[in-house]
Write a structure and sequence with these properties.
The protein has three helices and four strands. A hairpin with a 5-residue loop joins strand 3 and strand 4. The longest helix has 11 residues.
Length: 94
């Protein structure tokens, strides 16, 4: 079962109207076409970094060998929280 609808609901509630936070989805799909098709299917409203741009994005240092993996970082690149529950709880503080 996909967790995407719940993630979109949480995004709309806690991030979409918060100008201090931006969600960036880094796709680990094998192709940009697959990544875009999935994002379109799930109606993701946030920024996407496609597989062919991941290495150049500067986000590789946050990679963990798990999917999905959520990381909340500040403007300086410091990790503030990891994991979906911890991140959405911390958003209440921002």
């Amino acid at each position: 079962m996909s967790t995407a609808p719940q993630l979109v609901k949480s995004f709309n509630k806690k991030i979409a109207t918060n100008n201090k936070v931006e969600l960036i989805h880094v796709s680990l799909d094998r192709s940009p076409q697959a990544a875009l098709a999935w994002a379109k299917q799930e109606k993701f409203p946030w920024v996407h970094v496609l597989p062919d741009k991941y290495a150049d994005s500067g986000l590789l240092k946050y990679y963990k060998n798990s999917v999905p993996h959520y990381v909340l970082i500040d403007k300086g690149g410091k990790i503030l929280a990891e994991g979906s529950p911890a991140i959405f709880d911390m958003l209440d503080e921002l």
